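Check out a protein:
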Amino acid sequence: QVQLVESGGGWVQAGGSLRLSCAASGRTFGNYVMGWSRQAPGKERESVARISWRGAIIYYADSVKGRFTISRDSAKNTVYLQMNSLQPEDTAVYYCNADGQGGTYWGQGTQVTVSS
């Protein structure tokens, strides 16, 4: 079964940093676009960043440019989201996803809470 498992969320003070990890398994993702999205309480899920498995950056939301960095380690089948200068508006459940011709997959999410 295809699985995407996020980890690394937690509580931080504004200005702090976290690194989220997404462990991917169940298939090869060489032709997939990997991404992170988030859903804040009472709001719709929104895309944060996307990267091809080849390593090309595809997208950053304007709200996170210069603060967040998406990367992947193909040898470890893992996608990362380094989040710096976190602000309260970044508080959300963060989800990893994989999108390709073979289908679209989502992880279970990891909570990020940023206090002021």
About this structure: Residues 43 and 92 are 9 Å apart (CA to CA). The chain is about 0% helix and 55% strand. The mean pLDDT is 96. The radius of gyration is 13 Å.
